[in-house]
């Protein structure tokens, strides 16, 4: 038996069996059950209406309790609180009265006065219908009466019509104090009076039946449900045999047609699925109907189209990823330039995710602050070139604080992330931390994706993959820069060491010669420093050197280079400085040394002096060796002149002579070193 035949037979059985069973029920059972079911249905509908009244009463009770708590809070803005309560609890009105019955605050419509409590099953009558009222007494802290809270909820015809819709074809009447107050439709007054006089019993008047159910035992309020008194089955009984025969014939014809219409698309679908499985993603099948089978065919076509688009997108994404990783690998392996690496990281991230704009922020000179290092299309969203973001603030600051990626939309609306001043707002974004040695050194921030689409978890996973490589390279660059810095830095004073000085002075002399600009060298030496070490110890001597380095550094410009030349000797390179400027710098340094003794408050302070030799390019030489030699000669001249001063090298080199001996005077007789 084919599928088409089985479907035809099944359809025929599905139609005839229910019809035959229904016939038995109609002829044997239905006449006896109609009356009983009608009574049960009306009673159930009335009980449902009463339950709805009780549910709305519970809402009024909740509103009254909430208002009572608000009224008991000293200093609370009671009026706005009641207004919000009316909106949230969806009640008609709330009033708070003081102990004398005067109105303290209220919101919404006015509750009925002296109305019975809906918790007792009572519905208050109002000019517009019924109303559920709850009154809750207020007590002061010592238990004395402090007023009351009255909450109410209106029950009008519109609400009763909603009950009628849930009750099916029945009409619903809400009554209070034995009188109707709201109805879903017009019900005969005689039927209403009869039902209200016999609560809980089915009554009949003029072809209509009704049941009235009180909202509570003994209550005069409740709901009444009415409908037609009986169901006329005679026409259905006469037409039933013809219905069965006609339905059987029609079912056979329709079943055969449906079976054919169903199996044909399935055959086409199976064939098309085989072609798709073989790799032909351009396969489609004709859509011949708008039913489930037609939608299945349409869904199959949509599936193959989306599958083709996704496969193409995956291929493009793979190509972009390979190209990006290739660029990233080339950049990471071929440079120690941090800015270039960050630019490649940003460009690769943008190309991979489709972001229009982005930036990399790195840790700045100020602790707990991120500074913009590289960016793309910043002006489109008003991002400043000098963007600075405190750690813990905004998008990138939050990522730096938590060390965890973040994605979403920036802004101040619901579900959005608040950006820091200067960060983009109103756009989708994704941000990831850049780590170095376990610490956050920067943040990669992308925003404004094409089509205003949000960044996905797949984007985040992809960014994590290559930022992990980038952070290794950033770590290497930072370590390389730190190693380079340490190689040209004196460990004790923090100034440039001799190696760094030789590189710097060579470059500065070359620049000065190229542009015809002056250059000055100051060579400093602590007077009688050996005496400091001998008397106070090398640890105190080192402290004096550190303090001297700080004072010298404070007296020169940022473009000047201060270096420890060796031992207690220091050298200062002053670009763009002639003899007069060099002398002024020497005077400032001498004044800074003389200004106060050396040492902390808990140490014995020392009066220390320095001697300074000055040499100027090109007056005293055109090479670093010559300038240093002439500055050294000037230094010896300053010491010979009594120390604690400066000397400028003469324009012409004097005949060589032995330098004056550096003798250490007796501690007691030394005027340049004393305790203070």
TrEMBL record:
The keyword Transmembrane helix applies. It comes from uncultured Frankineae bacterium. The lineage of its organism: Bacteria, Bacillati, Actinomycetota, Actinomycetes, Frankiales. It comes from the Bacteria. Keywords: Membrane, Transmembrane, Transmembrane helix. This is Diguanylate cyclase/phosphodiesterase (GGDEF & EAL domains) with PAS/PAC sensor(S). The keyword Transmembrane helix applies. GO terms for molecular function: diguanylate cyclase activity. GO terms for cellular component: plasma membrane. Residues 644-676 are annotated as: Disordered. InterPro entries: Diguanylate_Cyclase, GAF, GAF-like_dom_sf, GGDEF_dom, HAMP_dom, Nucleotide_cyclase, Rev_trsase/Diguanyl_cyclase. Residues 517-651 form the GGDEF domain. Residues 260-312 form the HAMP domain. GO terms for biological process: cell adhesion involved in single-species biofilm formation; negative regulation of bacterial-type flagellum-dependent cell motility; signal transduction. SMART domains: GAF, GGDEF, HAMP. It holds the Pfam family HAMP.
